[in-house]
Amino acid sequence: MILINLFLAFFRVGLFAIGGAYSFLPLIEREVVQNYHWLTKEEFLDVLGIVKIFPGAISIKYATYTGYKIAGIPGAIFANLGNLLAPAVLATIAFTVYSKYKHLSSVKAAFNAVQFAVCALIIAVAFQLININQLIQPRNLIIVIISFTLFIYTKVHPAIIIILAGITGIVLR
Question: Is the model's pTM score more than 0.85?
Answer without folding.
Answer: no
